[in-house]
Specification:
By secondary structure, the protein is mostly beta strands. Helices cover 7% and strands 41% of the residues. It folds into six domains: 31-272, Galactose-binding domain-like (Jelly Rolls); 275-344; 349-416, no CATH class; 431-653, Exo-inulinase, domain 1 (Jelly Rolls, Sandwich); 662-729, no CATH class; 749-775 and 785-924 and 970-1050, no CATH class.
Length: 1057
Amino acid sequence: MNRKIVNVFQKRDLLKKSITIYLTTILIFGVFSFIPSVNAEGIQLVDSDFNFSINSEDLINNSVGQDWYESRNDTPSLLTLDTSDVKGNTGKKAALNGFDIGTSAYLSQEFNVAQEKEFNVSIDIYIDKISDYNNYDRAGYIYIGDDSSGSNGPCSTSSERFVFLTFYDSTPGDSGDDIEIRARTSLSQSWSNTSNWTTVTTGLSYDSWYVIKLIVNVSKGGYDVYVNDILKGENISGYETYPSSSVTDISFSVGGTARGDFFVDNVFIPSQNRFFLDSTVNGDGSVNINPGESTYSNGTIVELEAVADMGWTFSHWSGDLSSGENPVNISINADKSIIANFNRSGYSLNINLNGKGSVVKNPDKQIYIQGEIVELTAIADTNFTFDVWSDDLSGNNNPINITMDDDKTVTANFDPDYLLIDSEFKNSLDSVNLRLNATSQDWYESRNNDTSVLTLDTTEIAGNTGKKAALKGFESPGYAYLSQEFATAQSDRFNLSFDVFIDRIEDYGDYDRAGYIYIGDDSQNYTSSDAGKGPCSTSRERFSLLTFFDNGGTGSNLQIMAREFRHDNPVTPQPWADTSTWTLISADLEYDTWHRIKLDLDINNGTYDVYVDDILEGNDINGFEDYSSSSVEHISFSAGGTGRGDMYIDNVFNPSSKGYRIESNSVGGGTVLINPGEARYKAGTLVEFNASANSGWSFDHWEGDLSGDTNPISISINEDLSITAVFITGNVIPTVQTDNVTDITNTSANLHGYLIDDGGENNSVWFEWDQESEIMECIGVIATGSVSKDGRSILHKNRHYKKDNQRPRFFQGINFSYFGVGNDNAPTMNRMGQNEKGLAIANADVSKSKFIDINNLIDNTTNYFSDRSSLEDNDKHHVLGNYDTVKDAALWIATHSAYHGNYWIISSEPGVGAIVCVDISGNSTITWINNSYAAIANVFYCNGGHDTDWGPNDVTAEIIMRDIVENSTSSDSDNLLNWQDISQRIAKNTRDKEDGNGTFYVKGYGGEISNGAARSAIVCVAGDPSFNSSIHMSWLAFGKTTQISIFLPLYAGNLSS
């Protein structure tokens, strides 16, 4: 008996047991509703969970009895029996892998009995990915039908498919939640365009298990689709060309036109009520689930084992399982979600090695408790030296301690023993010491021609403030060589690197060179004239011969050139005096920038490679053809003579050291100080960044590869960095928000606004009335109410107000200081002003208004002006510079003004009063109110006309002035211009600061301030810290206006609430 027949009998025997167990389950749990109208034959499929399939070959092959098998025989290898972990399912399952495959495979099984009436099937499905293939974009198919055509196996043609479903994604891939189930029900739905098929459901995700349940009724011609027990598609029509009255087979297909990967498990007829088991972890660890399945049948016992990661211990289960036992069993009778909770038990210390060496930990353990101190000792291998710690340690102390308060990773960096010493010139004390040839290995000046060309430089060169060698040969016929002998002669392959900064190159014949880089020896026997020239001093002593070249010394075309051949080489002559004939290594280098040059030299092969800023620019460059030695022993940098340029050299390392760059920038007024300042930094170098603000600025925060506002800040350098320091000025324009005007009447309105201030100063707020309507007959605005910022004077620190022709005015009088706003076109006429006593004057009609020369402070009878002049001090700031009462100011204006103009004089002092002052040459009149007393005289009309009779303007003036006085003496929150402390009123000279970029916030309809002809008016409002920013405004009944403004210059701070 062959193996396959034995398997058949085993499956039949197991099937009987399965039927018995299943019917017992029904009797126990009363699950009669799960199998509506199931045929008497009972279970229709075998091996529903693929546990009877031995391997992929067994799954593919068709046995002599009922069995899963690959029915299409196109590409059976697309079907495999999978036991990997697929989203928690570690059991056996069918994998159909058709991604980007043009051929197909079918996983099929024949029903135990043909189905004509209603039956149901449940399937676990997992979609892994879908290929973007024309308009198909399908993962695979689910077919239920028959094998009536007798070719290619069951469900192989449309006429053999009653249930015809696919998984579709219009934007295919392997992630997201846009998978749809689509059904093909008619010929009109194009086979090649899945978007035309019937949508069953949307919103399915990749990499998730779903339970698909189908209730199929062939006799009624349709089926219902459930996803995770939720009805998604009701009465979906069977495919219209299906002719049979029953179905006999189920197939899952992939490949061909359905190019995707998916998994199938737990295919049951009748359907089972399946449950999900979801596990998550809190802390570091994992959960082993046995058996691991996509879904579980009712009553399945599952073992859960919590496995803690290193440094963690299992604590307890939570969610749908409450227990501290581990492992633990759980019975699946519903969807379950369990959480394995882990607690921290200690910390791990991971040691990495860069280079050759080892690290000893004391104590040496896998896990360390909180706060435990571990000593680390770096031990270098032969020919290596410990350099520096990096990652969670920095510096080069050895041994060094580390405190375990978290998981730590430490890297010990080992460098090969160097051929060169003092690579960063730190051991050189000064220029004399740098030039001096010591008895031991060191840098020195070897040519002894013009040693002054070589100096030890500590100035700031593109951020490099450390020690570096400067070779300044610009316009110098004398030359110097900076040389050092290698620790051992090199005859094979080695490398070195250095940083170079080219400052300038002289236009000198056809040389046009900044200097030279030589690697060679000191082998030549000199004649008496050559004595003492030192290493690399002749062409025959130079294996590598490089220079920095700029043809014509343009300052814009910096190149690296190599001399490989003699001047008389028959193929490629390269004369010493014509650099343009040399071999081009790299072009378009930048002046005033540090470049890293790496040379990879193969002495035995006679060639070298040149890297510029880590990019290979010259490959297999020939050593100079006159060099005859089999090794090299020296390196020299030369400038002057024929290499007339200025350059700087730093970080000359062998073996080459990558080093990291730091780019620093600033936004605003300030700079970044870097300590130490280098062209490049070795890994693990601790660097301090200090943001230094200019006067009037302050450091705010870091951006780029630094964040936060810590200053100064130190970090370990393990990569290239770009950092930006952001500075802010104290003069920050605040954000102003205003609400709509409310409670509008003929005499008042409520205005509300908010000032959001981040530390700025000298800011103004305004309200505008933008409704065009006939409000009154003339013009004018007087505000009642108050606003404050920190209780400070509105005069304090007012500056940076200039727009168009308006600018601030300041005047220091005999008694007081004055601050106001004027017009450059008429410098003698200030539109508005105040002094620190709270006295304010505003022009209602400024045409031709003029005050006498302020030099006549005592004589009140002479020096009237008849026209406008350019004397900006000849204006009313004299009044506010010497008077502090409304009466005195009004009398002065009445007797010292020329022409005519309308003025309002008001005071912030409660009870002092206010006045409307109308003046005309030789005939000045005043309306003056003091406390509740009104002395009414003749008043001008708003257009400048003169009215000697008591008229409506006089009446209006009296009403408004009485209102002002009454409010000024009341105790409610509508006090007019009420300053708390006279000492806060400090005017500030702004004359030298008038060109700021702030907007001038006092707005007039015609662009000028308090211009009566333009129908706008201004009132200066002082502050009371006990009041908020809500202002109740009343205006004079003077006529039509399209704009009402309140000028509120405020000191920086927060609005009182």
